[in-house]
Specification:
With 171 residues, the chain is α+β, with helices and mostly antiparallel strands. The protein has one domain: Gcn5-related N-acetyltransferase (GNAT) (Aminopeptidase, 3-Layer(aba) Sandwich). Helix content is 32%, strand content 26%. It has a five-stranded antiparallel β-sheet, with helices on both faces. A three-stranded antiparallel β-sheet has the order 6-8-7. Strand 4 and strand 5 form a beta hairpin. Helix 1 packs across helix 3. It is globular. The structure holds coenzyme A. Coenzyme A binds next to strand 5, helix 4 and helix 5.
Length: 171
């Protein structure tokens, strides 16, 4: 079993997903508008499977998604990490936040720590992300991280997406 490390940034702790995070997943996926670009809305039992998959991915792949927690208050607000589903051609940096916590730079701050982790701890030479053309917040985030479009790929779900390469020293 992979031991899941904890990462710290100025405002955030990125820690392993755990059973106690179920309410966070339930609430995120119950919000149809907030989770619409992330496979939602989902019923609570489906959200539980997402949590189980996020934990399992660490053990299957040796990397995965963290829970993002405010250091000062301990409030869990979403997730960020590295994801590579079976059968998909590449791994990606991915993020999701409860709507109440968007617009504060949280995903940007978490991403920088995860990109450094990918390079320095996992030894990756590339960190990429991709999103639907209609997902403007995710696209803005990739650009804010200094990402540049290096490819356009049709993924196994039939959706064609731009692929962004994210620099190691994301601005
Ligand atoms: C993608 C997603 C995580 C982006 O969230 P976000 O809040 O826009 O991103 P950040 O947390 O980095 O915040 C950036 C915003 O905060 C503002 N901001 C405020 N303080 C900031 C700070 N200290 N540092 C950086 N940005 C800051 C930025 O100006 C930016 O606002 P803008 O987009 O209006 O220009 C969010 O939209 C989401 O959870 N979507 C649903 C899941 C999803 O679609 N995931 C991607 C699938 S491909």
């Amino acid at each position: 079993m992979t031991s899941i490390p904890t990462l710290e940034t100025d405002r955030l702790t990125l820690r392993a997903p755990q059973a106690e995070d179920f309410p966070l997943y339930r609430d995120f996926y119950a919000d149809a508008e907030g989770s619409g670009n992330y496979g939602g809305p989902l019923r609570p039992d489906e959200a539980f499977r997402r949590l189980a998959a996020d934990i399992g991915h660490w053990h299957l792949r040796g990397f995965g998604k963290w829970i993002i927690v405010f250091r000062q208050t301990g409030t869990a607000v979403g997730g960020c990490g590295l994801w590579h589903p079976m059968g998909w051609p590449r791994h990606e940096l991915t993020w999701w936040l409860l709507r109440a916590f968007r617009g504060q730079g949280i995903a940007t701050e978490a991403s920088r720590a995860v990109i450094l982790f990918a390079h320095r701890t996992l030894g990756w030479d590339r960190v990429e992300t991709h999103m639907r053309d209609t997902n403007q917040p995710a696209r803005r985030l990739a650009e804010r991280l200094g990402g540049t479009v290096t490819d356009r790929v049709t993924f196994p779900d039939g959706v064609t997406r731009d692929v962004f390469l994210l620099p190691e020293g994301a601005a």
